[in-house]
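Session log. Operator J.P. requested a structure for one protein chain; no other inputs attached. Running the standard single-chain path with token output.
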Amino acid sequence: MRKLCNQYIGPRGVALLFMLLFGLAGCASLPYELPGMSAVPAPERVAGLRYAQMEELGALRGACAHLQDMRQQGRRLRPQELEEQLLPACKRQIEGAQARLARERQEAEERAIAEMMEREWAWVQEQAALRRSREAEWREAERQRQEAELLRAQLAQAEQAQAERRAALAQRIMATNVQAALEEYEDKPIAHSMGQPSATTLKTFLACVELAYPNQGYRVSQSGRTLTVIARKAQLPRGDLPIETRFVENANYWRMTYLMVADIEARTDADRFVLSQNLVAEGCPQEGGLF
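Structure written below.
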């Protein structure tokens, strides 16, 4: 080739040609695939790691990234560039990333140990505090136990007294005159709104009204399903005046449709509900949620 170049372009041209070839071969960013000159592919692994592993490690940059690009593109490299530049640089990046990871792991282990020691010390302090306060806690527990026993005894007495009051009230309710006046009528719950019966029955309600405001007898009448009950001369705060109620019988309850106390008429379901509660509050105070 030298003889051919000397023959056609002279010694000076041959020198320029070789300088051009060596200049092109020295560019690391260009593929070295000139005919007649050796080239090698980028390696599959560097320092025993695949490129995916390098990426997980955080080392896939610089020389390592360049090697991955060359391998993915199927391009070849000069052996000297590979062995003297790219591989050493990539290995240094891998070693640096591994060292950084090792430091992070060591720091994490040290933090974990420090946290564990802190927890252990806190536990030791807590146990010491518990031992110091155990005697006081025992005394407090004994005091609370005695108070609980006293409270249970008081509750039992209160429940017994309440049961006795309820039994006495039940006897007073059964002894009212309205029981005889409504003997032939079924004692079903009463309701102030359609389909909403309460837990209080017709006779219990009227008996509680009688206990609060005694009267001089009843006038009871029924027209169809409507039952009218008038307490005559009930002892109201304004004098002896009547209390008139009307109920419409349904399958399972009596619905209150009219309530008049003296000259005060409750015209709506809500008004009748409130007035009914006021009427029984004094005669049956234990029946606080009568409706």
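Operator note: The longest strand covers residues 226-236.
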